[in-house]
Design a protein that fits this description.
Four copies of one chain form a homotetramer. Chain A is α/β, with parallel strands linked by helices and about 325 residues long. Chain A contains eleven helices and eleven strands. Chains C and D meet through helix 1, helix 5, helix 6, helix 9 and helix 11 of C and helix 1, helix 5, helix 6, helix 9 and helix 11 of D. Chains A, B, C, D: One of its GO terms (molecular function) is monosaccharide binding. Chains A, B, C, D: Its EC number is 2.7.1.11.
Chain lengths: ~325, ~325, ~325, ~325
């Protein structure tokens, strides 16, 4: 029979996202609530290997819920890809008396966790923490909502200047493989065009569409481009193409970059992270050992890691239609 | 057989909420997309009675998606409670050649709409526009998410000064009958206590809980109070009660008030409003004539007005537990 | 001859204001730059009496420049009004080996400092930290600019809802004795009327002016009221007076309250606080012992405490004229 | 004798900046206050040539004070560089019955205005509207303060992620010839290094300084780079140089770009713009015909165009010292 759960470790891994601190806080306080010990692991899976641990109690996580980033820091770990590294990590957990682990990160982190569980039969529960919202099995990831607001506020500012000068702006947003940020923020910002990796618009159709916009009386335009989009991948080249093919257009490029990862989390992300942190400890107490916490239909659900990493969250076709109609 | 749909009117009614402009914009552009005419009605149901109409095309609603409030303005209408008023309204619609109506507002608006539909057999589709999120049949109302962010940002600021002075703050938020804003924003702001109308905590239990917090080492506290809460209804009296019953506590009150209604809508509310606006015109084209558009499980759904107004959206008990655990 | 300066203490006192952390950070880093030791005093003058000290080095103040409030916390100290309290404070400073003190606060703090300097011949330099901008001898106080932005953003939100409903809003802002916040934020928010303690408008003139506004075609109005204003002191009474005397007006009241003290400081306040912190240590190194650092004509200046506390910063009549003209 | 002033035209020219709308509003309302007519010119000097005029009254400029950009739009005008273009412009002004012109823009605009005044003896008053704060004779330009807040908020977000990953970020800000934005925002954001065109640091000194930072215990760094800086001009090259010369550093680049031009103006910029707009009309009424309105020592002043364009506003050496000390 399994040992009774007494001590939980928590770490953040991969790219940071707003709400990770809120999630850590919820895990720590949920441990305190259930009379469990909680240990924080610094610098993600690499810190696990190096034994970079610190005990956390309910007061350790005060004034954190509104902070962007992750106070446990994050890091990519090459060592964790090696059996040797994972063995060290496991040994550290055992020596520290840790019975289970909560990992907050994206699909890369879950892949690593999945291997670790199989190798050492060690219970892990994952929380989806990434701005990209590309995790299968959860309607939302921690940080996605905040990133959308950040992007939309930035584009609102760019539109001020676009309107003042009758300009066309290409705005690159994050999303190497997934267009969720581009599509939602594009609708929210009232973008004239949205280019995402899931759909290949083609340069010629883009020009046609821009010509239609111009004829319909639009004097300035915002095109939101996902960094992984086929024709938008090299955004500066695309800008040149538009300049060459549309006379009299003043085209500018803005790459939003890392501002999208930071910032104080939105209320939605704080609540989602809090719920997920509580659900993670509940799940471990309930004997779960190989799952991600997700949100579906606004309820907390358990999704096997296998399910979570087998494919990427799909784009909602309804949203593409809404984008088309409302940008008319 | 019903006349083919050619002209739609749109209005906002009741308290304004952020995202109403985005919803109007989506209705107008969806009409343009489908080749329908669209007429805006100013000042809600009262404007319907007074015939305060204006034709709107796709360009009429540019640069509106990011604006708080409603450019069509809103108003409470006593006249619409009278048969005579409603008859005038109907006559105006008929004279204007309007075939169907989209109303954006709360349950009061839907009650009025419901009567109107029965009396004149006139097609109406409703969009839930209110910051209170108290409408049955939809997971979210337009404006709720923005209001939560506004409240959380305000409390973040208050916490700066609470922390600097070891003070206790009572913060009143909107929600006469429903605690949705208080509960979500309270979790998001890391409030120590949350008082909502759905649960009667009682003054004595509140004092006990505050004493426990103090003993656990907390030096400042935020209590979020829904304006309709039993013991929080008169927030200044409650503050006096705490001062009297807890020695050495510096207690302050902040009533957030109407800032909660305004502000540029969040990305979530802009996208929700856009989807709902598109779905409203789709529904009318599809022959629907007595429904509210809602969102359930992140999908657009049709909810009969009867269903929407029969009761208020319930508080999620999971959230109350999350609030309890994460404020430990 | 005076002992060579080796150790400086720093504290924040009175009401907190955004930028106080930036000022502390600059004092601490300036000490590190000059090879001086720096000790932080918690909870202001009361902490000085209770010996609540902590050594601070350059790294102790990282990630603080953008935080509202004061991490050294602040408190009002009755004990410091007594000779006995001040003697304890002095003894603590001597025992700790502190050679000089930097106090960040308002005129109350400076009055206390002034007495202390005379009694113990102990060097003190003050930094003006208050949102009210009511300190004589400096064009700006640390926190004023941030508070103005907070107020203006709040009123922008209120205006969304005021415009949507054709309403009149009374918005109370801080400023018990001084109208600086009301006057500047009132101009910045495009308020129709601004009521400040320095000018007694009288209720009748207010009504006349509102009638003129109404006739000129204004459909909604914002009146910014300083909490210390003659007719605005009881803002709810004033609202009733307007309702009684102006037919058909929907009048609402919002008291902005403590949100005005918090929030991440504006760039201006961060730079001002950084400059003043550096200037304070420079002044002490230069043998100054009884001055406040001020900013005049965008230069750092030395103002004797006597000068700083003898009267309050005056309202600029040019601003009153600008308010009158631009609200036409 | 000069004709009595009856009609004033106002335009915005060059790059847009936050607060331009507030300035236009103040000019328009000041005209209304003094009983003058006011005509808005769209698209700057090009619109002057093309006669793109519209009468503006006090109500035309409502709800504009909080909007970024310029509703009169702006444009660069090649035609205005030609005598022929200016003659058309003059003819349009005469035909429209305009007696004087207020131009809001940067030094390029003032140069054009200066020539126009000489050629046609036509009264022009300029307002400094640019985010760069590079105009001689005024302590602040309209839009500078807002841009600083925008930059500082963006870097706060980048620092969240920099701290979470122990990274070095190069952040490029606007300022082709002047380092005012970089220097002030760099201090405000707590940047470790600030590279400005006015000072050539040299790559080797930069590496030395970064090494010192690392030794002092800093684990992440922000370097703010003015786009016109010698070594920062090609920011991606500089990033490569740092990677090559500092082992184990994860270096990232963010180019903030056009978000810096937009956004709702800060309270400071709204008040400054309002004051300057009022002062412009005062100056014209007072017979001035060849000046820029500036702010010096927080007072409105008149600066001849000759003075304003003869050189660029200098960097304040005190600020460079404050940057050095507070980033220790």
């Amino acid at each position: 029979m399994a040992k009774k759960l007494q001590k939980i470790a928590v770490l953040t891994s991969g790219g940071d996202s707003p709400g990770m601190n809120a999630a850590i806080r919820a895990v720590v306080r949920s441990c305190a609530y259930h009379g469990l010990e909680c240990v924080g692991v610094f610098r993600g899976l690499q810190g696990l290997i190096e034994g970079d641990f610190k005990m956390l109690d309910a007061r350790s996580v005060k004034n954190l819920i509104n902070r962007g980033g992750t106070f446990l820091k994050s890091a990519r770990s090459k060592d964790f890809h090696e059996k040797e590294g994972r063995e060290k990590a496991h040994l550290n957990l055992v020596n520290e008396g840790v019975d289970a682990l909560v990992v907050i990160g994206g699909d890369g982190t879950f892949r690593g966790a999945s291997i670790f569980i199989k190798e050492f039969n060690f219970p892990i529960v994952g929380l989806p923490g990434t701005i990209d919202n590309d995790i299968h099995g959860t309607d939302n990831t921690i940080g996605f909502d905040t990133a959308l607001n950040t992007v939309v506020e930035a584009i609102d500012k760019i539109r001020d200047t676009a309107n003042s000068h009758n300009r066309l702006f290409l705005v690159e947003v994050m999303g190497r493989d997934a267009g969720h940020i581009a599509l939602n923020a594009g609708i929210g910002a009232g973008a004239e065009e949205i280019l995402i990796p899931e759909e290949d618009m083609g340069k010629d159709r883009l020009i046609e569409s821009l010509e239609r916009s111009r004829k319909s009386g639009k004097t300035s335009s915002i095109i939101v481009v996902s960094e992984g989009d086929q024709i938008g991948k090299n955004i500066f080249e695309l800008a040149e193409f538009i300049k060459t093919n549309m006379e009299g257009y003043d085209v500018r490029v803005t790459v939003l970059g890392h501002v999208q990862r930071g910032g104080s989390p939105s209320c939605y992300d704080r609540v989602l992270a809090s719920r997920m942190g509580v659900a993670a400890v509940d799940a471990l107490l309930d004997g779960k050992r190989d799952i991600m916490i997700g949100t579906q239909n606004n309820k907390m659900v358990h999704v096997s890691f296998e399910e979570a990493i087998k494919e990427q969250q799909k784009i909602d076709l309804e949203l593409i239609r809404v984008a088309d109609i409302t940008s008319i």
